[in-house]
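Here we describe the complex-level prediction in full. Unlike the single-chain runs in Section 2.1, the two entities below were treated as one system.
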Amino acid sequence: MTGRVFAERGIKRIMFRNLAAAAIVSIAMLFTGSIHGSAADNQAGAKMVLDTWYRLMLELVRHTPTYTPPVASRAMGYVGVTAYEAIASGSARMESLGGQLNGLAAPPSRQKSVVYDEAVVLEAALAKVVRELFSNTGPTGQRAMGAMSAKLGKTVTAGVAADIVERSTAYGTELADHILRWAAADGGATIINMGFPVSYSLKPGPAAWRPTSLIVQQQAPLLPGWGEIRPFAMPAGAICALPPPPAYSEDPGSEFHRQAREVHETSRTLTDEQRTIARFWADDAMLSTTPPGHWISIALQIIRRDNLSLERGTDVLARLGIAVADAFIGCWHDKFRYDLLRPVTYIRRLIDPKWESLLITPPFPEYPSGHSTQSGAAATVLTAVLGEGFAFEDATLVPEGMPTRRFASFWQAAEEAGLSRLYGGIHFRAAIVQGLAQGRCIGAYAAALRTLR
Amino acid sequence: MRSFLAVTLVAALTAASTAASSGEGQPVVPTFANETAAAGIEHQFTGGWQFMVGGGVATFDCDGDTKPDVYIAGGTSKAALFRNTSTSGGPLKFEKVESGAELDAVTGAYPLDIDSDGITDLVIPRVGEDVLMRGKGGCRFERANEAWGFDGGDAWSTAYSATWEKGATWPTLAIGTYIDRKQEDFPWGNCTDSKLYRPAADGNGFAKPNALAPSYCALSMLFTDWNRSGTPSLRVSNDREYYKGGQEQLWHVDPGKPPRLYTPEEGWKPLKIWGMGIASQDLNADGYPEYFLTSMADNKLQTLVDPGKGGPPKPSYADIAFKSGVIAQRPHIGDDVKPSTAWHAQFEDMNNDGRPDLFIAKGNVSEMPDFAMRDPNNLLLQKSDGTFVEVGDKAGVASTLTARGASIADFNRDGKLDLLVVNRNGPTEIWRNMSEAIGNWIDVSPRQDGANPDAIGAWIEIRDGERTLIREVTSGGGHVSGAKTAVHFGTGSSVAVDLRIIWPDGRVGRWRNVATRASHGVAKGTEELLR
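The structure predicted for the assembly as a whole is:
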């Protein structure tokens, strides 16, 4: 880095850089993305910090046992807001989310007329928030976070004047503390028994959800109270409540039975493409980045591909994180309101006793489809930020041996993600259609946030 | 070559117990005394991240006195050999002896007569170079990597199994490896290649190893003839924490051909678990082994979906852990409801009632707060209906130290199986089986001339009119722990049973009636009992 050269050339250069950096901050306010010299390096460093912590977070999601999709989405919300506020606090172009998000007071301000290093601020803030949110991860995750903090900390501070490092670190830490205090009060911070109630009474009746696995923990549904935790941007978990699913019926002429037969028939006539789609969006907890992580991965790929500025990149990640987090809250609200059984339960009961779904049926009620709701919310907010008809490639699953998929728009991807649950045999069509609609409603709240001026 | 060891242990003269159950199908609970303090095994498997898995033990007789000795991994401490000085039926006693195998960075160990000279050698997986130690007799060993052409590599080795391929005079070794330990920031998705060492073309030692690619961070491997084809396949249990796109594996290892994975088209079903240990035994006497796979939270007990109906079985397994009562997903004592972490597992008949029981070593990986920190070991006794009941606490073996590897063996040669558990960053523990009212037993040691003297790959069958018991002689599995000891059968109230051996080359030995409460060596060819 240029900063390291500064250090080698002496203190005068450092003093010059401090002055230059102050000037460049002002210039950057006007010409973000096209700046040169030290501030450009500073931007590059901050982008590297942002990308690296997000990559690590996606790994930690996969390897931290409490990080089921709802819990993962919550982390993505808070990490997104942290990154956004870290950059927004030094940018006149960005409006703080303080006061816009439920319960988030105005974040601490930076001191006026002094220089901060954006990469150092971001590193301090993200390191603290990620390490706290994933404090329960295993020894390898702890080791990786420690190694990452040390490595990034050394990289971003190299060649930066000590007073700037100190000030920037202090500010990033203060901001992180502010976010963590806010997060601690949302009702979702403590996860017991990986989110499965230790005792739980199944609801009576033929339409009610029944456990679908032989795993002991999963004899109770995942996180039945998640619909009640504090959302980020939408007013409450019930704000985008859905109409009920088709009335439960065992009558072969009923709509419910017809939708069950559709799941059954689809599973028996799956094309290779449908099978690929089901697996591409499977996003199983503990085996993947989870559904919200899949969308974060998509956003990261776009940010890298288009070399988005820090302002735009953090705007995308914050609003996307907020949207998927709110989507899981809204979706879970209705899952436990309707408590509907899964296709595998109904189909084995009435249509085909030996039927198996292609995907593993998740351990919670069916309606609406969580992946559909959160994909609808993700598509809504990404379309709002990046535009209609925004084409992209998704290589999230390449390390798993699956191919890159191409999409003409975010909604094409969201609709495919929704349908993947039908192909996988874990959702009826109504849960997908209504889930996407619910996501559109929820995502609009994140899309409406005031961010870049 | 060392001569065949003739072993027949005359039954103790105390009145033979014939207890098979305590009534109502409830098995007799064996009782154990923790003799750690007095037994003379002062040893710990120690270390940080690179030793979060492992901590195994090799159990075998290194001095020819028929009593199993133990070589225990030490992690950052030196591995150590403890010679068994117990008297028959007496308290467990060991003395640490200089063996020449005091290596560091050892994760586990397995005994095997690699060069078929009648003296047990050691396969020692390590963090770093794996080492083969040639047994010299008298509990002394010497490094044999160079002499045997064994390239020990430089990996984090955590699994092993061996077989003798048809016609081979040297064994084929599989060594499973774990994470690329140089990947500090992003270790996930960085499993290094496990290796398959086949005999050298000149019939002396090993050829250069082949990668068992793809590899998915193996924590247990087992050559097992799962379909009774006569050619063992290699089962690999992998830790899903670190692989991407991985799953449990079953490899075809056909003589003269490269290893290849069983596929979904052949019936193999993907399974992704935190695989840590494999135990196998035929629990339902259908001739095919069941496999118990340890993991975090729920464990798996697999049985063939369609054994032998309409042609050779496909490698499709159903998980019967839940209905069998061996899911063992959380501590069975204490008030901690968090999930367990399971490592070494082993089927053995701990109360000699003729039904194999299951021991599971438990222990948190390393300060994982969402998993039980005080995680007791399990002892699950098989009931007459084939389900299991937890008795670890009643039996006295429910230690809550951080267990990893283990060994179940008759250390004091009284016909009752004892237990040794290797704990991570804690003392190795040992228990003596003090049970009085338990059943009869026999120990069987098949022996053959030439290569593979311990008949790895043989099947031992016992029948007594009430039951048939079948055990495969294997080398591998568990959690970096293995034994080369007599194969133990509980026989309940039977004072004599029919015994036969199906030898590794497929030859079926003759049935012969043998007395229980005794150890029997059986020689291939004559089928005579060795004395």
